[in-house]
Design brief:
- By secondary structure, the protein is of the alpha/beta class.
- It has one domain (43-203): NagB/RpiA/CoA transferase-like (Rossmann fold, 3-Layer(aba) Sandwich), CATH 3.40.50.
- It has six helices and eleven strands.
- The strands form three sheets. The protein has a five-stranded parallel β-sheet. It has a four-stranded mixed β-sheet with strand order 7-4-5-8. Strands 9-10 form a two-stranded antiparallel ribbon.
- Strand 9 (180-181) and strand 10 form a beta hairpin.
Length: 206
């Protein structure tokens, strides 16, 4: 049901009151860096943690190797609607920068995104919002692939949050594994709210 002008005015009045409310925020705790986890082989840990949450990682020497590995996946070979934000690795069939309405991306088969760095302790990748013509590209595609430099990895989230302070985008997100839920009958379902499968390509020449 379409909201009426009265509903819109009431909602805006509530938001305006919230914005004028001053909330005292306690200071963040100091982190003892000597007690923060570090990994001797962070890449190996990242791959292991990503697999635990349903993702799959591939180590490749060159961006040219990404397409070859994707071609081994049936659902990529048959895909017709591909948005690539990493054109040096994979050429796309849709130019998302020419799309004004994100709803037009509802039938995208694959999004190929660029990751800035990896986090070993939880198998996540930071995506800078400036690389996304539309935020929804990470979540609306049936399948997601992320290309990330092998040299760009941190051990833990404390280090990760220090890294993202240097990014200027108003939006960014940590991505790890395909979407999943087990709310219904305690049965695990992958791809419930986002991509069915996540492929991560750790590239040596980026």
């Amino acid at each position: 049901m379409k909201p009426t002008p009265a509903d819109t005015d009431a909602r805006q009045a509530i938001l305006d009151r919230i914005n004028t409310k001053q909330v005292d925020i306690p200071p963040l705790p100091d982190v003892d860096v000597d007690r923060v986890i570090e990994f001797d082989q962070p890449i190996d840990t990242f791959i292991e943690m990503l697999a635990m949450v349903g993702g799959q990682a591939h180590q490749v020497d060159s961006q040219r190797d990404v397409r070859a590995l994707l071609e081994e996946i049936d659902v990529f070979r048959t895909a017709t609607r591909i948005v690539s934000l990493a054109p040096d690795s994979v050429a796309g069939t849709i130019d998302a920068t020419q799309i004004d309405d994100p709803h037009d991306l509802a039938t995208v088969d694959w999004t190929i995104a660029r990751g800035e760095f990896m986090v070993a302790e939880n198998g996540s990748i930071w995506i800078d919002g400036n690389s996304l013509p539309h935020r929804v590209l990470l979540f609306i595609a049936q399948y997601l692939a992320i290309v990330v430099p092998r040299s760009q990895i941190v051990s833990n989230m404390h280090q990760a949050y220090e890294r993202i302070e240097n990014f200027s985008a108003r939006f960014g997100v940590f991505v790890s594994g395909p979407s999943k839920t087990a709310d219904i009958e305690q049965s695990l379902v992958l791809g419930a709210h986002g991509c069915r499968k996540l492929q991560v390509f750790i590239v040596g020449d980026l």
